[in-house]
Amino acid sequence: MTSLPNRPNTALVVIDVQNGVVDGSHQRDEVIGN
User: Fold this and answer.
1) Is a pLDDT exceeding 70 seen at residue 34?
2) Fewer Cβ neighbours under 10 Å: the N or C end of the chain?
3) pLDDT above 70 as % of the chain
4) DSSP assignment letter at 25
C-alpha cells in the first residue's frame, strides 16, 4: 500500500500467484513473502 498526498482513500492490490505460473520468477519467494 502507498500513501500519496491529497488522496484520502486506500486501495488494495490482489495478485493471484498460481502454482506453476511464476516458478521461474526473480526472487519469487521473497516477493511473495512481502
Assistant:
1) no
2) C
3) 68
4) S
Instruction: From 11, 20, 16, select the one nearest 32 (Cα to Cα).
Output: 16
List C-alpha distances in Å: 22 to 2, 18, 27, 30, 34. 24, 7, 10, 13, 15
Q: Which three cell numbers stand for residue 32?
A: 511473495
Separation between Cα atoms, residue 12 and residue 2, nearest integer Å: 10
- Distance between CA 17 and CA 28 in Å, rounded? 10
Dist CA 20 CA 6 (whole Å):
40
Q: How far apart are CA 12 and CA 15, in angstroms?
A: 10
Show the CA angle centred on residue 24, arms to residues 18 and 29, nearest 5°: 70
